[in-house]
Every structure is written in structure tokens, then in C-alpha cells.
UniProtKB/TrEMBL annotation, chain A:
<feature type="transmembrane region" description="Helical">
    <location>
        <begin position="72"/>
        <end position="93"/>
    </location>
</feature>
<dbReference type="Pfam" id="PF00528">
    <property type="entry name" value="BPD_transp_1"/>
</dbReference>
<feature type="transmembrane region" description="Helical">
    <location>
        <begin position="231"/>
        <end position="250"/>
    </location>
</feature>
<protein>
    <submittedName>
        <fullName>Peptide/nickel transport system permease protein</fullName>
    </submittedName>
</protein>
<dbReference type="InterPro" id="IPR050366">
    <property type="entry name" value="BP-dependent_transpt_permease"/>
</dbReference>
<keyword id="KW-0472">Membrane</keyword>
<comment type="similarity">
    <text>Belongs to the binding-protein-dependent transport system permease family.</text>
</comment>
<keyword id="KW-0812">Transmembrane</keyword>
<keyword id="KW-1003">Cell membrane</keyword>
Automatic annotation (TrEMBL), chain B:
<feature type="transmembrane region" description="Helical">
    <location>
        <begin position="12"/>
        <end position="33"/>
    </location>
</feature>
<keyword id="KW-0472">Membrane</keyword>
<dbReference type="Pfam" id="PF00528">
    <property type="entry name" value="BPD_transp_1"/>
</dbReference>
<dbReference type="InterPro" id="IPR035906">
    <property type="entry name" value="MetI-like_sf"/>
</dbReference>
<keyword id="KW-0813">Transport</keyword>
<feature type="domain" description="ABC transmembrane type-1">
    <location>
        <begin position="99"/>
        <end position="300"/>
    </location>
</feature>
<dbReference type="InterPro" id="IPR000515">
    <property type="entry name" value="MetI-like"/>
</dbReference>
<feature type="transmembrane region" description="Helical">
    <location>
        <begin position="177"/>
        <end position="197"/>
    </location>
</feature>
<keyword id="KW-1003">Cell membrane</keyword>
Amino acid sequence: MRPGLILSWALIVLVALWALVPGVFTGYDPIAGIPAEKLRAPGPGHLFGTDAVGRDLFARVVHGAVNSLSGAFVAVAVGLVLGTLLGLVAGSVRGALDEIVMRVVDVLLSVPGLLLALTVIILLGPGTVNVAVAVGVGSVASFARLARSEVVRVRRTDYVEAAFGSGGRFAAVLWRHVLPNSLVPVVALAALQFGVAILAISTLGFLGYGAEPPTPEWGLLISEGRNYLATAWWLTTLPGTVVVAVVLAASRISRSIGREDG
Amino acid sequence: MSGSARYLLSRAGQAALVLWAAFTAGYVLLQLLPGDAILIKFQNPELGLSPEQIAEIRSYYGTDGPGAYLHTLLGFLRGDFGYSIDTGTPVAERLAEGLPATAKLAGAAFALAVLIAVAVAFASCHTRLSRLRGALQAVPSLFVSVPAFWLGIVLIQVFSFRLRLVPVIGGSELQQLLLPVLTLAVPISAPIAQILARSLDQVRTQPFVPVVAAKGASPGWILWRHVARNALPPTLTVAGLTFGELIAGSVVTETVFGRNGVGRLTEQAVNAQDTPVLLAVVVLAATVFVLVNLVVDLLYPVLDPRLRRAVA
């Protein structure tokens, strides 16, 4: 493995640990602040500094990981399951159904992801779960298109024909042969979408459709720091840097999937 | 009918079909809204409206009855997008107010994005230092990983508060446009740069390049006349695909910089559950996207003589 890839995995593991056991990484409370220590610059006591009510920013970023990561998981799961299912059905049944599904995909792809997510949010209302679902719906189309092209490719191979020829039922052959052999590029897309979802969720959080304050969600953290741009640069800069690093790591891992050399 | 006319017609027909489907999907989805905006706004007991009066308001907004869908569709075709539930003004009017500002922002951002992409791609193909080359190749993936809203904030922080180059409020129009354009351009330049760099690399390994070089062409001539020309079509396709992102990106950019425009209108519409406005914005975004990609498709045979024969 190359150093960049090792670093990416290390970062993802670290952030996953932030989400699972935040108490190990910080002793500060993410919600209750210490008023006497408000707006401290980053330093040995407070790694990322503190905000206007004296809350430790690093603690808020660490405790916020669970919101961003679980949201991204839900989003990718929605996109992956719905998209792969649509692509699998379209690519294996073909005919009129294939045409209809792919035209729906065209329509979804013609509307930018953020607008699609906003449409879902106006429907479901704001909230962390709804934002995650909205972002997931936005990625269904790309999963469906990729899964379909893979299924169409695998469907034509000799071993699938042989499986059908030796009396395999349609659903069984799909499950045993077509699906597993179509999955590698789909998994690579899922890794990429994980980063994209973190980005989209933080954007929607920033716009105010996600978690409610004082929940430490990454996009919301940056939004709250906007009022202190002139005095406290760390409140916006540092959480944003964490988001960029996680998204970069996810895209680096995505590029390595399905390649021998990483 | 000639082959190219048939190609043109079928592509235009497909585009129209996608737009109609986008409208219908948006319409159906937004009709599903449980507590719809009319109820939220007019069911307030203080207004003392009877159910009959609410029904009357509904028919005024064209959201009721079996003919509502057709009514709205025909309205959209005529450029009548119904009425904003939030302000009661025609949606078309509100869109027309925001459109010039957003078009200026998006147009400038697209131009800058292409400039950045061309610079990054050509530099990474041209440089002989492998370390610099690696760094330049990583630029696109860095650019897509940066949240646009955060980039805008950081730019304000650096250029307005630290260096004091751009005033936070006031300043000339150019100064006001500078940071938002940069914010919108950076994420959009990434996919264009990526595809351009990849196509340049691919074209350079093709056998016709050494042939042209053997005939005595200079490296600059080869790059511009032969390599760049052949790398253009895939880049154009990706550049067309970014147009939807321009409109979505303007939501974030206009919110961060407090500019008025279609993006800001979208954000306000979502906050107020103003479905007619959102439907109009979604259809507008889809229309821009579909039209730009139709033009790109139709340009392909113009750019590539081989396709001209295939179509005709």
C-alpha cells in the first residue's frame, strides 16, 4: 500500500473511533461550556480553541463525528440499496422496464444533487435522519446507472449463460452469479459517495436543515463560527479542515478499490 | 428526411421528454406534502377563514381539483409558474428578479472554472518534475473535497478580515463578485481539470503524435493543433454536466455571501415550504442542464468529422 492510502485509512479509522468512543479522545463536554475560558485560541489546553460560550471546539468536533458518519452511512445505504436494486432489475430484465427505469435515472441526474435533497427536505421536513435520506436519494441515480452497466456486462458472460443453461432459476442466478460479480465498481462508488455524503450533509447542516443547535454537527459548527470570523478564525477553519481531510481520505480509498497496486 | 435532421429531432425529443418527466416528478412529489404551505399559512385561527374560503384560496393558487396538473403544466409552458405561497407574488416575477444576478455569478464562475481547469491540466501534462506533476494531479480531488460554504467563509476571512483586500460590505461590483465567483468556480473546475488532464495524457500516447513530430512539428504546435483538439470533446461533455452544479452551488454561495439571486430564493423557499417556487427552480435547473447537454451533443459532430459521417 502507498503512504497516502495508509494515511487515508488511518484517518477514517480515527474518525470512526471518535464516533464510537468520543470520551477516549477528549475530556471536555461538547455541550456545556466553561464561560471563563471563552474564545481561547488553539493551544495546549484546547487543541482547537474554544467558542463564544467556552466550549472546547475539539470536543465538539470529536462528538460531532457520530452525527456526520452515521448520516453518511444512512445516505450511502439508501443510495446503494435502492440504486443497485434498480440497476440490477433494469440490467437483467431489460426491455420496456429497463427503458423506464433508465429514463427515471436520466431525470434524477438532470436535477443537481443539492436541489434534489432540498426537494426531499421540503417534503420530509428538516432533521438529521431526513437530511441523510435526502442525500441518499440524490445518489440513487448514479448507483443505478453503474450497477446496470455492470449487470449488463456480467449478464453476457459465459458462466452466467452456463448457469441459466444448467437450469438455474432467474432470481437464484442473479443472486449467486450476477450480483457478486457486478459489485466491485459499485463498492468503489459507495466509498466515494461516503465522502460526497459527508460533504452534502455538512452543507445542509450549514444551511440549517440538519441537527438543531447545540448538537455538534460539523456543518452547524462552521455555521455557528461565522459570527466570529474577525476575531476567532479557528471556529470555522478547523472543523472545515477536518471535513476536507475525511472527504479526501474517502475518495483516496475509493480510487484504490478494485486496483491491485492500490 | 436526412439523417442529421432525424438525429437532431430525436435528441430534441429526448430532451423534451426528460424535462416533462422532471416537471411531473417534481409536481407529484411536492403535492405529497403533508402539511402543505397553504394550510400552514391560512389555517391560522386568527385569520378566521372558513373551510370554503380556504378552498377558494386553493383554487386561486391552482393547487386543487383534477385539472390542477394540466393547468400547472400549461402554465409552465407559457412561462407562468403560479404564485409564491410565501409572498403571494407570481413565481415568474421572483425568478426574474433573481435571475440576472445569478446568471452573472454563474457565468463568471464557469469561465473562471474553465480557466483554472485548463491551467491545472496543461501544467500537469507539461511539467517534467514528477513531484510537481503528482501535486498538480491531486489538485482536482482536493478541489471537490472542499465544502463550498466553508471555502467561501475562509476566503472572506483571509481576503476581507486578514488582508483587507475586499471590503465586507460596500465596495465596487467587481469586488463584491470576486470572492463568490472564486467560491463557486473551485468545485466546478475539478471535474473539468480531471477529464482534460486524462484526455491529454491519452491522446499523447496515440501513434499519430510521433508521426506529426517526425514531420517536424514543434511541441507547442503538437499540443495545441493535435493533442488539445482531440482532448476537447470529452472535456466539453463534462463541462456541460457541471451546469446543474452551478445552480446548486449558487444556493450555497449566495447564502454565504448574502447575495440576492435564484440560489437565495431557493433557500428561502425551502424554509417557508414554498413549493411552487421550489418546483420552478428545480424545473429551471433541469432545463438549463438538459439544454446545455443537448447543445454539447449537437456540437460533437461539428468538432469531430468522424462522427459527422456516422450521423449522416
